[in-house]
Design a protein that fits this description.
This protein is α/β, with parallel strands linked by helices and 183 residues long. It is 58% helix and 13% strand. The protein is built from ten helices and seven strands. The protein has helices at 13-22, 30-40, 42-52, 64-73, 75-96, 106-109, 125-136, 140-148, 153-159, 172-182, and strands at 3-6, 27-29, 57-58, 61-62, 100-102, 117-122, 162-165. The strands form two sheets. The chain has a five-stranded parallel β-sheet, sandwiched between helices. Strands 3-4 form a two-stranded antiparallel ribbon.
C-alpha cells in the first residue's frame, strides 16, 4: 500500500515523516526530489530553458530569481512549470520503489493518484504561523501570503483519509501507531 502525507506550511509533515523514518519507513520527499531533478535531469533542464529562456540556469546552477520571476508573473506560467516538473517527480517516485510519499501539494499536483491512502498533518493556524516565522525568519504577513496560496487546511482535511494533529499537545507517535494498525 502506498501512502501520501500532506499538510500546509508549518503543519509539521516533515516532522511526522522523520518519526516514520525512525520506525524504518523511508519517505520519498517530493520537494527534495523536484529540486534534485531540476538540477540533474537534462530533459527538465532543456524544457525549462525552452520555456523560460537562456537565463534559467547559470552554468549548472538554477537561476532561482529568473525562475521565480517567471513563475510568479502568471498562473499560466506556474502551470507550465508544474507540467514539466510534476510528471518527472511522479515517475521518479514510482521508480523509487518507496511506499511513502511526502507532498505539500498531494491533491493539487495530482500525486494523490499515485497513492492508496492519504494522511494530512494539521495544526492550529496560530501554531503554523509561529513555526514558519521562527523557522524561516519571516514576517507573519509573508507566512499568511504563503498559506493563502495553498488549499485551505479544512479542504485538505476533508479530502484526506486520515489526520495526524500536530498541535504540540497530542502524541504524534501514538497517532502514527493508530494509523499503522488500522491502515
Amino acid at each position: 500500500m502506498k501512502i501520501g502525507i500532506t499538510g500546509g506550511i508549518g503543519s509539521g509533515k516533515s516532522y511526522v515523516c522523520k518519526r516514520l523514518e525512525t520506525r524504518g519507513y523511508k519517505v520519498y520527499d517530493c520537494d527534495s526530489a523536484a529540486k534534485r531533478l531540476i538540477r540533474t535531469s537534462p530533459e527538465i533542464r532543456q524544457q525549462l530553458t525552452d520555456l523560460i529562456g537562456p537565463e534559467t540556469y547559470h552554468g549548472e546552477a538554477l537561476n532561482k530569481a529568473a525562475v521565480a520571476k517567471f513563475l510568479l508573473s502568471s498562473e499560466e506560467n506556474a502551470k507550465a512549470i508544474d507540467a514539466i516538473v510534476h510528471p518527472a517527480v511522479f515517475k521518479d517516485f514510482e521508480e523509487s520503489g518507496l511506499m511513502w510519499m511526502e507532498s505539500a501539494i498531494l491533491f493539487e499536483s495530482g500525486a494523490i493518484q499515485l497513492v492508496d491512502k492519504s494522511i494530512v498533518v494539521t495544526a492550529p493556524e496560530t501554531v503554523r504561523i509561529e513555526r514558519v516565522m521562527k523557522r524561516d525568519g519571516i514576517t507573519r504577513e509573508k507566512v499568511l501570503e504563503w498559506m493563502s496560496r495553498q488549499l485551505p487546511q479544512e479542504e485538505v482535511r476533508r479530502r484526506a483519509d486520515y489526520e495526524i494533529v500536530n498541535d504540540g499537545e497530542r502524541d504524534i507517535d501514538e497517532q502514527i501507531e493508530i494509523f499503522l494498525n488500522n491502515k
